[in-house]
Amino acid sequence: MDRRRFLYAVAGLPVGCFLAARPQVQENAVLTLFLCGDVMTGRGIDQILPHPSRPDLFEPYVRSALAYVALAEEVSGPIPRGVDPTYVWGQALEAMAKVKPDLRIVNLETAVTVSDDAWPGKGIHYRMHPHNVSVLKAFGIDCCALANNHVLDWGRRGLLETLDVLHRAGIATAGAGRDAVEAYKPAVLPVPGKARVLVFACGTEDSGILPAWAAGPTQSGVNLIELSESGLAAVAEQVRAAKRPGDIVVVSVHWGGNWGFAIPSAQRWFAHALIDRAQVDLVHGHSSHHVKGIEVYRGKLILYGCGDFLNDYEGIAGYEAYRGDLGLMYFPALDPQNGRLLSLRLVPTRAKKFQVSYAPEEGVEWLVETLNREGKGLGTWVVHQPDGSLALVWS
């Protein structure tokens, strides 16, 4: 028995799996990304930032964004107002400083606008004041995926302002644009000495994206797709039009409902097909308010549901069993030559008082149990690391 097989046997792991230790490669030959679930800095969170928007809402039962601050305070205690731009990130800043990823990619689930054009008939409207964009800059975000069900909450004027504000702040965007051409184009993120990373973003109707939000030849909107052969062909064409030899391709996709651990067969087929037929190296799936199972398919990482990372849902009752307060910071290390996953480090987090912190012990145990249960059919599980993080193991 060779040394690797011996170590796996001692650890009680099946021979043939890949443990946390990555292959022996030089550090400068590893491309490390940061990914997470939905980042929602609007509504209640916007109200505690230095430049809050008008709090007016048009929800069936809530007419002021300040009500969400009050709900959170009822369960967690006082929340400060006019906070520093770093406040909401809390201990996530420390975790980020330890890993020092090459790129930071998030799904930004809010408009960044002063528009009052609330989309008619839509029950929920998220917005953050443009002067609060410093919050996103404080986390060092490189790219925001925008193909989601909230980016047009405040109309097409709100979308255009969101794009302008983010671009002026030096933050790239993907998945939404002034027309279909812009919505389909990737964010191009060069990492000197390693690779050029292309981030495409798209979304499906079952995540709550309205059909009217689809970008067109002369209409602003999002990259709306179907999980079908035609949808796959559309994404593959977008990749072919932009990819050069040596590029790493990430597809960030907003799909499915908010609750439920089951992974629809259509999602799994689509993710596999993106890798097999569209030259995609990593699938970054989101929409679920809780973490879901993780898969490594032909050496490429698939995140089906990252769970929420930051939101103002604290105090809203009804789905406590899913632990929507818990999240993960995903740090995949990729081989920049071929996009294969070398390791995946996961940092467990909890959102409380509109701030991200390290998850408490019971929260970490819940995440481990959940990831192992849901990953069983996908050939993955996680193991604790000495620094408190988790490492993905795959067969």
Question: Mind explaining what this structure looks like?
Answer:
With 395 residues, this protein is of the alpha/beta class. It has a single domain, classed as Metallo-dependent phosphatases (Purple Acid Phosphatase, chain A, domain 2, 4-Layer Sandwich). It is 25% helix and 25% strand. It is built from ten helices and 19 strands. It has helices at 3-11, 43-48, 66-76, 92-99, 134-138, 155-168, 180-184, 229-242, 265-277, 361-375, and strands at 31-39, 103-108, 111-112, 127-128, 143-145, 172-174, 176-177, 187-191, 195-203, 221-222, 248-254, 282-286, 294-297, 300-303, 326-334, 341-352, 355-358, 380-384, 390-394. Strands 1, 2, 5, 6, 15, 16, 17, 18 and 19 form a nine-stranded mixed sheet that branches. Strand 18 (380-384) and strand 19 form a beta hairpin. The chain is globular and about 50 Å long.
Helices and strands in order:
Elements: H1 3-11, E1 31-39, H2 43-48, H3 66-76, H4 92-99, E2 103-108, E3 111-112, E4 127-128, H5 134-138, E5 143-145, H6 155-168, E6 172-174, E7 176-177, H7 180-184, E8 187-191, E9 195-203, E10 221-222, H8 229-242, E11 248-254, H9 265-277, E12 282-286, E13 294-297, E14 300-303, E15 326-334, E16 341-352, E17 355-358, H10 361-375, E18 380-384, E19 390-394
Parallel strand pairs: 1-2, 2-5, 3-4, 5-6, 9-11, 11-12, 12-14
Antiparallel strand pairs: 1-15, 7-10, 8-9, 13-14, 15-16, 16-17, 16-19, 18-19
